């Protein structure tokens, strides 16, 4: 697991460092001299090992590295002029074999052991959404989306008799149904509700977890049914408390409602794209920090576990943050990134001011490994701050002042305080009097070796006056409590089934004690002053407080609540036929278990869809439900006005399978001869 006080460094494996030229692919896949950025350039696991051993990565103070998907990818190129190869790792062909162009399985194991020996966790990318590019009418195109299991062919996109893949055309990104049940671009979309695919993907991720990886990034999470993803999250956390997060892309000026709801209920953190858009608008658009402040307000009201969402300036799918003319703005943006609420991700090369436009310009070979750039020094210094000042990782955020070019905010956790001041303007700025949480005294900026020092003097009430900010500069004033008091800081995972491991991080927790979840005694596996490992007890499903009693009889309670599911989750596709609705009506389902809202209409699962897998007047939804359990359920209708109409008749029921995926089709019970009914061609889900 990772804590909010840590930092991730994202590496595109092929673009970071070459350690073993013998791993290079054949000529048609490789670009000698790195002239073609759509080919392999030679970066490999041996190169990452070298940069761990020489101190480059550890010198930045990062806690984890996120690397390209390690599984075997296809071995051919696209047939266009540039001949794109799968250097990025997103065109998998076999989840149970390593990518030979990154190294052997022995080399991957060496990477894990080297990283762990140096205090680094290893997170891998994983693509359960798709395999490789395919054209259904051209079986000879590339590898035809082929998927293998340990070298044995499972299926190809053309002639897919077992429906391993989706065959619904490509998505136009119109809505959730269109995004989840159609192919992403020309990639052969996997049908996660096919039992063979579900088993293959679980087997694939289990393979890498068992090797020792510490976390998983789920690629294209937005394009996978949330019900299946939630079950996958439960599967992963039942096997190992690995840190898990997903890519749920949001456009600029979008809203967090849907993805925050998924993050809050699934146990899977998400990449916080609204943070990225807001910080880029502030620095690149030069429109001030107003939109950034609005984003902070929306995020704090949307995410139950805000500090566990991942914040970043850029990544492999967008233009690099640094532009040729603004390395100073990159420095200031890094200050804001590494002091904001959330778990920061630094994209490889940002610390070297690498610039570049969209793919593949944003994926050039690492330009330098200098440890003298201001950005490198800033990342290192701010990561030291994150490690020792609890306000950064766990504190609340309070905006104290902002205008077109200046942002002042405070992070505080109990008696730990960090006051951050940023001026991106090209002229100095005098701040009005501020009221802070800093204890009385004089403070020097933590960044005084980088920016002109401006001493701040806090009065008896934390008031600070006459602070003058130099042009394009940043200042951080901190206070760290030296009290050796018990403090339970963080737990992971945020949602899981009974019997899964629960890890609690804190300080001065003692050497033994008792732990309760929702008042139920948990089986403690180990108890150390900074870490407790326990089994989640068989509590009633729902959200529960986590409380502890140390051997010294000191009590603690974690600030956030743990979501406990009814049991191990499986995914069931519920289909209701002959349900005619009005235009603005949405279909949901509720039932006798927590996952269906326990008959509470406001917590019903859905919405159901009616255009692609099944068509109106049939409706379908893939839902995570407890395994091997009798489930009773009824459907309900909800309109824009919020009025709910429950299905008539006795409850439907299903006994869910012990594992895997399944489907149940039922008939709608109730009168549907109502006014304003839509024809099949006009129907639409809301």
Textual characterization of the structure:
The structure is a single chain. With 686 residues, the protein is an alpha+beta fold. Helices cover 19% and strands 28% of the residues. Strands 12-11-10-5-2-1-14-13 form an 8-stranded parallel beta sheet. A 4-stranded antiparallel beta sheet has the order 15-16-17-24. Strands 25-27-31-30 form a 4-stranded antiparallel beta sheet, with no helix packed on it. A hairpin with a 4-residue loop joins strand 33 and strand 34 (555-557). Helix 5 runs parallel beside helix 6 and helix 8 runs antiparallel to helix 9 (290-302). It is globular. The two termini are 38 Å apart. 50% of the residues are buried. Mean pLDDT is 94; it is low at 672-686.
How would you summarize what this structure contains?
By secondary structure, this protein is α+β, with helices and mostly antiparallel strands.
**What is the β-strand count?**
42
CA-based shape:
globular
Q: What portion of residues belong to β-strands?
A: 25-35%
| Unreliable residue stretches | 672-686
What would the average pLDDT be, to the nearest integer? 94
Q: Strands across the major sheet, in which order?
A: 12-11-10-5-2-1-14-13
Number of helices: 12
Q: How far apart are the termini? A: 38 Å
SS-based class: alpha+beta
Largest sheet entry:
8 strands, parallel
Provide the helix percentage: 10-25%
Radius of gyration: 26 Å
């Amino acid at each position: 697991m990772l804590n909010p006080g840590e930092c991730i460094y994202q590496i595109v494996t092929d673009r970071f460092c070459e350690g073993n030229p013998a791993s290079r692919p054949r000529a048609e896949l490789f670009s000698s001299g790195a002239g073609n950025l759509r080919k392999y350039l030679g970066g490999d696991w041996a190169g990452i090992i070298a940069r761990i051993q020489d101190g480059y990565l550890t010198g930045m103070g990062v806690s984890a590295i996120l690397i390209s998907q390690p599984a075997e990818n296809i071995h051919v190129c696209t047939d266009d002029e540039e001949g794109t190869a799968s250097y990025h790792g997103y065109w998998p062909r076999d989840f149970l074999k390593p990518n030979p162009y990154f190294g052997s399985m022995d080399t991957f194991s060496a990477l894990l052991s080297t990283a762990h020996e140096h205090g680094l966790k290893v997170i891998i990318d994983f693509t359960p959404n798709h395999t490789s590019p395919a054209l259904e009418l051209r079986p000879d195109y590339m590898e035809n989306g082929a998927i293998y299991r340990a070298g044995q062919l499972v299926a190809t996109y053309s002639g897919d008799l077992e429906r391993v893949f989706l065959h619904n055309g490509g998505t136009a990104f119109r809505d959730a149904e269109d995004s989840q049940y159609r192919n992403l671009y020309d990639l052969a979309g996997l049908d996660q509700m096919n039992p063979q695919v579900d088993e293959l993907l679980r087997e694939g991720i289990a393979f890498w977890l068992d090797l020792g990886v510490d976390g998983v990034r789920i690629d294209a999470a937005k394009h996978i049914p949330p019900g299946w993803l939630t079950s996958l999250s439960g599967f992963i956390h039942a096997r190992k408390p690995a840190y898990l997060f997903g890519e749920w892309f949001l456009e600029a000026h979008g809203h967090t409602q849907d993805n925050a709801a998924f993050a809050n209920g699934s146990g899977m953190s998400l990449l916080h794209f609204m943070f990225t858009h807001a910080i880029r608008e502030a620095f690149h658009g030069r429109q001030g920090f107003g939109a950034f402040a609005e984003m902070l307000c929306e995020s704090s009201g949307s995410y139950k576990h805000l500090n566990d969402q991942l914040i970043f300036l850029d990544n492999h799918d967008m233009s690099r943050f640094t532009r040729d003319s603004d390395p100073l703005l990159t420095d200031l943006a890094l200050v804001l990134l590494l002091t904001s609420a959330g778990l920061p991700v630094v994209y490889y090369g940002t610390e070297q001011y690498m610039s570049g436009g969209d793919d593949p310009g944003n994926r050039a070979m690492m330009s330098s490994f200098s440890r003298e750039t201001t950005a490198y020094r800033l990342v290192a210094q701010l990561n030291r701050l994150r490690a020792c000042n609890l306000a950064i990782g766990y504190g609340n955020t309070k905006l104290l002042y902002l205008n077109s070019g200046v942002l002042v905010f405070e992070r505080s956790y109990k008696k730990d305080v960090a006051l951050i001041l940023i001026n991106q303007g090209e002229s100095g700025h005098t701040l009005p009097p501020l009221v802070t949480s800093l204890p009385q005294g004089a403070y020097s900026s933590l960044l005084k070796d980088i920016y002109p020092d401006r001493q701040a003097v806090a009065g008896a009430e934390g008031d600070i006056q006459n602070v003058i900010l130099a042009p394009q500069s940043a200042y951080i004033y901190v206070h760290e409590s030296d009290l050796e008091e018990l403090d339970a800081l963080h737990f992971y995972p945020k949602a899981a089934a009974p019997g899964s491991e629960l890890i609690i991080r804190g300080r001065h927790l003692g050497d033994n004690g008792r732990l309760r979840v929702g008042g139920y005694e948990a089986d403690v596996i180990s108890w150390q002053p900074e870490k407790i490992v326990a089994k989640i007890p068989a509590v009633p499903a729902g959200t529960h407080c986590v409380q502890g009693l140390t051997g010294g009889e000191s009590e603690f309670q974690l600030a956030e609540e743990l979501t406990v599911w009814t049991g191990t989750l499986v995914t069931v596709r519920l289909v209701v036929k002959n349900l005619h609705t009005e235009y603005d009506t949405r279909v949901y389902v509720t039932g006798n278990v927590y996952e269906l809202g326990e008959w509470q209409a406001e917590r019903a699962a859905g919405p159901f869809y009616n255009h692609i897998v099944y068509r109106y007047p049939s409706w379908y939804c893939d839902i995570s439900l407890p395994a091997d359990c009798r489930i009773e359920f009824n459907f309900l209708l909800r309109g824009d006005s919020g009025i709910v109409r429950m299905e008539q008749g006795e409850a439907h029921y299903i006994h869910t399978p012990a594992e895997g995926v399944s489907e149940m089709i039922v008939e709608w019970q109730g009168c549907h001869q109502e006014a304003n009914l839509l024809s099949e061609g006009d129907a639409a889900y809301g």
